[in-house]
Amino acid sequence: MGERFAGAGFELYLVGGAVRDQALGIDGHTEDMDLATDARPPDIVRIVEPMATAIWRQGERFGTIGATVDGKALEITTYRSERYLEGSRKPTVGFGEDLETDLSRRDFTINAMARDVVTGQLVDPFHGIRDLERHLLRTPLSAEISFSDDPLRMLRAARFAARLDLRFSAGVLEAAHRLSSRLAIVSGERIFAELDRLLSLPNPAPGIRFIWETGVLGAALGGVGLQPFEDVEATIARLASEPTVDSAVRWAVVCQLAGVDVDHLATSLRMSTSRSQDLHDLVSNDLPTDLSVPTLRRVRRRLGDELPVRIAAVRRLLDPDVRSDLLPFLDRFARLIAEESMDDLRPPLTGHEVMELLGEEPSPLIGDALEHLADLAIERGPLTADDARAALRDWRPS
User: Fold this and answer.
1) Strand 72-78 and strand 64-69: pairing?
2) 88: which strand partners?
3) Contacts of 365 (CB under 8 A, 6+ apart)
4) Using CA atoms, how far apart are residues 17 and 24, in angstroms rounded to an integer?
5) Taking Cα atoms as reference points, which of 116, 106, 158 lies closest to residue 137?
6) Contact 168/157 with Cβ under 8 angstroms?
7) Three-state SS across the chain?
8) Which candidate, 137, 140, 152, places its Cα nearest to that of 104?
9) CA distances from 202 to 109, 199, 239, 247, 313 (A)
10) CB atoms within 10 A of CB 110
11) How many CA atoms lie within 13 A of 253 on its CB side?
């Protein structure tokens, strides 16, 4: 492909995370590649179309053409710059003329490297390789310019530092302190996506510390003031000691520590309905102290098999002292799941059979009868059809 661009008089470079990960010896997602060129979108389409099995032009006005070539998903973008205007929630994009200018507008030096697709030559004008060796997170231009152009980069800084074990340059720290409130111009969807990526890492603690202490997290959560990090540091550290918990559990922990209303936050960050409901369920449901089988069956019927275990994880992360209190519940709940299927507790009679038994036409009474049988199974265990008929012969709701 590089030869085709060169033959048409254009440059083509591999850019972004693939170049960084190559330098780190990390196996990247080779099926997806980001490329940069001085060709404009119509020229990109003209060059790529003969060899592509699919073309996407949705991002054309931003300079990006998507294509599938030899089974690989490519995003080919014209050299560009982008920045937020005062009060805008969407960046304005302008096309650039040269690679170094394009790289200078990228978030961090470790991502501001490029590799010539034809020759393989590395282009590293802002010393990203050196910063990787020094484990330093730094911006190509001043951090103040970088974070002003795109405030979301403050959250990206947290993610890269946590993922790659990087320390922050003084400029990054100072600019994040000064510009954290500028996150107010970034859309809720973008903030949620970036925070979710951070909370999905094996050890998000270094990134959380950065955004907590600089005020970036408070701004991301709607401008809330946060208590000193030292007061919550042990809890955040436990997130790393529990690598198997999912990001929603971590969201619940962070929200509880920050003192934010999860329903309001889910709306402001425009979480999906399912994600919003899951977060609500994690923080609004209690686990029983009564560990009788009927009580555990009710919990299981109401919350399912997985949610109670995840609720216990939230409680354990927030307060390790409750671990011993939770163990009996978790043990008995796991045993119940292993020994009994919820299908076993379903009424053994159909609605039609209940109507025949009660001599009733279709009505809410039939639903009440089936619910009564379900409640009996919760109390007594699985019912046979004869058990159910006997239970309903003299039954009428009060």
Assistant:
1) antiparallel
2) none
3) 358, 397
4) 10
5) 158
6) yes
7) CHHHHHHCCCCEEEECHHHHHHHHCCCCCCCEEEEEECCCHHHHHHHHHHHCCEEECCCHHHCEEEEEECCEEEEEEECEEEECCCCCCCCEEEECCCHHHHHHCCCCHHHCCEEECCCCCEECCCCHHHHHHCCEECCCCCHHHHHHHCCCHHHHHHHHHHHHCCEECHHHHHHHHHHHHHHHHCCHHHHHHHHHHHHCCCCCHHHHHHHHHHCHHHHHCCCCCCCCHHHCHHHHHHHHHCCCCCHHHHHHHHHHHHCCCHHHHHHHCCCCHHHHHHHHHHHHCCCCCCCCHHHHHHHHHHHCCCHHHHHHHHHHHHCHHHHHHHHHHHHHHHHHHHHCCHHHHCCCCCHHHHHHHHCCCCCHHHHHHHHHHHHHHHHHCCCCHHHHHHHHHCCCCC
8) 140
9) 24, 8, 8, 10, 16
10) 28
11) 32
- The per-residue pLDDT of the chain, averaged, comes to 93
Closest by Cα among 374, 308, 373 to 336: 308
Q: Which of 263, 189, 204 is nearest to 236 (CA)?
A: 204
Which among 226, 210, 232, 224 is positioned nearest to 181, based on CA atoms?
A: 224
pLDDT tens for 329-345 read 999 999 999 999 999 99
Which of 232, 152, 245, 264 is closest to 202 using CA atoms?
Answer: 245
Q: In whole angstroms, what is the distance from residue 104 CA to residue 111 CA? A: 10
Q: What whole-number distance in Å separates Cα of residue 388 and Cα of residue 372? A: 10
What are 197-251's pLDDT values in tens digits?
Answer: 999 999 999 999 999 999 999 999 999 999 999 999 999 999 888 878 899 999 9
Amino acid at 204: P
pTM: 0.86
Residue identified by tokens 């069956």 is 297
Q: State the Cα–Cα distance between residues 89 and 398, nearest whole angstrom.
A: 58
Evaluate whether 388 touches 373 at the Cβ level (below 8 Å).
yes
- What are the φ and ψ backbone dihedral angles of 207, each rounded to 5 degrees? -70, -40
**Which residues are CB-contacts of 144 (< 8 A; sequence separation ≥ 6)?**
171, 175, 178, 179
Spatial separation of the C-alpha atoms in residues 86 and 148, rounded to whole Å: 9
Q: Tally Cβ neighbours within 10 Å of residue 53.
A: 9
